[in-house]
Backbone:
């Protein structure tokens, strides 16, 4: 019986009534082939290959989204693991002694926990195990086409015929992958996108497009640069400076003077990289927060500057000036030129850093923020004088976050800002008042609002 869904997804490349093209009529193509250009050479519609393409065809997704979803579900339904945990009591034509150990082994497949019906047959269990081996080892699927593999399988079970590589490549692996994606989507929908606060990535090509789609659809999600990756790049740039390359070249001479010089310069390199390595290690902790990113960047740059000014520094001024420029360049990319000012804003809202001197203007001529003290707010005797640029960044970031949260709160009744979704001006005024109160508040009154492992945002 022909598969109706496959006939909806494909069409013959040539009319069947044309006898001159009867041989060429074995070619089928995607219904969106004018964009994707996908064709299939087969006398009949090959279901695994059709569903594999349809589940990845962006042209079909944009043109016929409902049909695209049906194709993905059909591909996922072809996964052997949909039948669930292997049944130890499954009866097969093979001898009971041949595969007793197989049924006693725990199944490591992660997809089995999502099963709701039936059980896999022995043939499906073996095919599924072969596909898992191919994926886990990174071996090519053509491995199972070798006669030696068939001979090995027959020794284990004379009644088992291993599948061909195209069956593993075009059916089992794509079906299992699509099934995993669909279940992941179900869990994400169950959690809800409003519980996701930010997306952090290193701008690789494989993740950047997904990030852009998520940020365009859910405006309240913060776009944050990967702080660990930025520190790694800074360390990498410092190590690639020409002065260290000369050290390695000279050390190959194996002379006493060169060896001592190499030891001194190696110690110098360790002193320069140590602040960045410590910052990277601390930020990898599960207790680190957004405010810690800015804090450790400032600490690493301050430690680097302190080392260059100390008597222990053996570098020439032009050398440490060049290394300082490298560190500042990475700092600007990670903080000042980041997609959002989330790290600076979190640092400003963290009570632990409320009165730090980094906020103060560097000289008397620079502009300072003039914020009138609220009447009902506990004040410090000497409130911090914020640099106007920092305060503007914080205000801009907070108001942008408020706007996005108000948009999301319209459709979420239990959202804390749902009551303000119809009157954004009131929410904006209250945020401005709270920001002023925090600006003038005494640090002793703020510690109760934030736990040590909690982010201000």
Residues:
């Amino acid at each position: 019986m022909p598969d109706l869904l496959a006939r909806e997804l494909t069409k013959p490349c040539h009319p069947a009534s044309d006898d001159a093209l009867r041989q060429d009529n074995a070619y089928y193509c995607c219904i969106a082939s004018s964009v994707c250009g996908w064709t299939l050479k087969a006398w009949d519609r090959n279901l695994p290959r059709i569903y594999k393409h349809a589940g990845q065809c962006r042209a079909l997704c944009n043109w016929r989204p409902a049909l695209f979803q049906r194709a993905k579900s059909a591909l996922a339904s072809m996964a052997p693991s949909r039948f669930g945990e292997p049944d130890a009591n499954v009866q097969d034509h093979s001898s009971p002694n041949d595969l007793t150990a197989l049924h006693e082994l725990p199944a490591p497949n992660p997809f089995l926990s999502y099963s709701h019906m039936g059980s896999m047959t022995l043939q499906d269990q073996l095919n599924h195990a072969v596909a898992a081996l191919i994926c886990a080892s990174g071996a090519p699927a053509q491995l199972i086409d070798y006669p030696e593999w068939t001979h090995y399988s027959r020794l284990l079970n004379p009644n088992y015929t291993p599948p061909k590589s195209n069956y593993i490549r075009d059916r089992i692996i794509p079906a299992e992958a699509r099934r995993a994606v669909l279940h992941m989507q179900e869990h994400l929908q169950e959690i809800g996108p409003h519980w996701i606060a930010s997306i952090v990535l290193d701008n690789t090509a494989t993740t950047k497009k997904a990030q852009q789609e998520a940020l365009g659809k859910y405006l309240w999600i913060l776009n944050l640069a990967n702080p660990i990756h930025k520190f790694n790049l800074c360390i990498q740039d410092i190590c690639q400076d020409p002065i260290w390359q000369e050290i390695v070249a000279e050390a190959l001479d194996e002379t006493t003077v060169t060896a001592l010089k190499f030891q001194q310069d190696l110690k110098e390199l360790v002193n320069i990289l140590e602040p960045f390595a410590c910052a990277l290690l601390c930020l990898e902790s599960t207790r680190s927060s957004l405010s810690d990113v800015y804090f450790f960047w400032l600490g690493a740059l301050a430690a680097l500057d302190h080392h260059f000014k100390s008597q222990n520094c053996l570098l020439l001024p032009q050398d440490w000036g060049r290394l300082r420029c490298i560190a500042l360049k990475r700092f600007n990319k990670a903080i000042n030129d980041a997609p959002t000012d989330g790290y600076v804003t979190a640092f400003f809202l963290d009570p632990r850093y409320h009165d730090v001197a980094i906020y103060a203007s560097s000289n008397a001529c620079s502009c300072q923020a003039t914020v009138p003290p609220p009447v009902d707010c506990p004040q410090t005797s000497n409130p911090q004088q914020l640099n106007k640029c920092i305060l503007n960044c914080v205000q801009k970031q907070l108001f942008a976050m408020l706007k996005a949260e108000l948009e999301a709160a319209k459709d979420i009744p239990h959202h804390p800002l749902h009551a303000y979704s119809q009157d954004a001006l009131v929410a904006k005024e209250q945020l401005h008042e709270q920001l002023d109160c925090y600006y003038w508040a005494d640090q002793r009154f703020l510690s109760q609002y934030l736990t040590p492992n909690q982010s201000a945002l």
Remarks:
- The chain has four domains: 4-77, 80-191, 226-338, 361-457.
